[in-house]
Amino acid sequence: MPTAAEALNPSVFKRCESRRANLTSFCGVRYSVCAVPFAEKALISQIRRMAGQPDKPGRAGGGARATRSVLTGIGDDCAVLRLLPRRGQQQDTLVTIDFTLEGIHFRRDWHPAESVGHRCLARGLSDIAAMGGEPVAAFLSVALPRDLPQSWVGRFVRSLISLGENFGVTLAGGDTAESPDGILADIVVVGCVPRGKAVLRSGARPGDRIYVSGELGGSAAAVWQMRKKPKRKLNPREYPRHFYPEPRIELGRVLREKGLASAMIDISDGLSTDLAHVCEESGVGAEIESELIPRASVGKPAREVDLEFALHGGEDYELLFTAPARKRVPSRIAGVPITHIGHVTRERKIFLMNRNQIGYELLPRGWEHFRR
Ligand code: ADP
Ligand code: MG
Asked: How confident is the model at residue 27 (pLDDT cuts 50, 70, 90)?
């Protein structure tokens, strides 16, 4: 194993040109230090082919000319994006970034590679949805352990790309490194929204109604099942919201376009935590009714999840939004059920009302890294 100084020495550089990858370690992450060790180069070529950008030298943009917005994708030092006006409107650029870490967000023995790839991109797409935006391009950095089967990587990337295709998103670049331990993936999603129209967390006002899309708690119920019986594999079809969550892009876009949502967030950490984010950013409080919260049905035979899962379970990737009381919000938008669960208050606290209209303060008990 060369040191960093040795790696910069031309004689080491030459040795690196052999098929054996020479690696060094900076801050615990092992980066390839030679020009392009074959393994990394081959992997990037494979990803590039899967992304529909074959590396034919000499073609414009290195063969990476992909879509209207992505002028140059995988294959150059930078991707070149051009976000043109859409439907006659100038656009602002949205950028979001999310880690997917083995042992934190997934386990290889619980989650098929396809689910990990899908969820990795879905997290980013869901953030774009929560701003009322449309996704354009994604960038994927991966650090992979040396002994990871190539087939795992193929299934992971294929699933991620195929979810992107459903939403017109091009995989336009990334980075690839060796990980000393466990799989790390980091996704950047770039999107656009008409100038000045992004729906923020900070727009909720006292008197606004609070709504959620879809059903909550299905993802947390799957995690609970897997924790309870770690050896038993769950059938992803019985827990689709956990294994293959559907980013609510179309719903977010319609809410923004029709001017319905005053504030919006995606429920990634759990209703109690994400509602608290909206309240904090908007300087308001909220009252929600336990009876109104739509709970997911999971398993076989399908059973409604406990209220606790719907209140505090994360990773459902539904949208939570507020709307002025005078606005008529349909009960279904873009094919997704919309449920009115409460209203925004002036007092900066969140209360959960039970069926007897007795209120309990609802503290954020969703997911938070580093919390003990
Ligand atoms: P550089 O050293 O200039 O960063 P790389 O050799 O790392 O270039 O990458 C070559 C090309 O492949 C770049 O266009 C980069 O964005 C793309 N790329 C690298 N890793 C990935 C990946 N995991 N997913 C998608 N594109 C990738
Ligand atoms: Mg790179």
From this structure: very low
Ligand 1 centroid to Cα of residue 140, in Å, is 9
Strand bridging mode 170-179 / 134-145: parallel
| Per-residue model confidence (pLDDT) at position 55 | 74
Tokens 């919309």 correspond to what residue? 338
* 3-state DSSP assignment of residue 210: strand
Q: Is the pLDDT of residue 293 over 90?
A: yes
**pLDDT one-digit tens code per residue, 261-282:** 999 999 999 999 999 999 999 9
> Does the pLDDT of residue 26 top 80, yes or no?
no
Q: Report the half-sphere exposure of 179 (CA within 13 A, side-chain side).
A: 17
Give 174 Cα–ligand 1 centroid separation in angstroms. Answer: 5
Minimum-distance ligand to the CA of 137? 1
**What's the pLDDT score for residue 369?**
65
Task: Please list, residue by residue across 327-361, b when 16 or more beta carbons sit within 10 angstroms of its beta carbon and e when fewer do.
Answer: eebeeebeebebbebbbbbeeeebbbbeeeeeeee
**pLDDT for the residue 368:** 66
Predicted structure pTM score:
0.88
Shortest-distance Cα residue to atom 10 of ligand 1: 75
49 lines ligand 1 (CB under 6 A): no
Average pLDDT over residues 21-32: 41
Give the nearest ligand 1 atom to 73 CA.
14
Whether ligand 1 lies within 6 angstroms of the CB of 72 is answered as no
Residue 73 Cβ inside 6 Å of ligand 1? The answer reads no
DSSP structure class, residue 345: E
From the CA of 175, give the closest atom in ligand 1: 20
Q: To test the ligand 1 pocket, which listed residue (49, 121, 176, 190) has its Cβ within 8 A of the most ligand atoms?
A: 176
Alpha carbon distance 352, 311 (integer Å)? 10
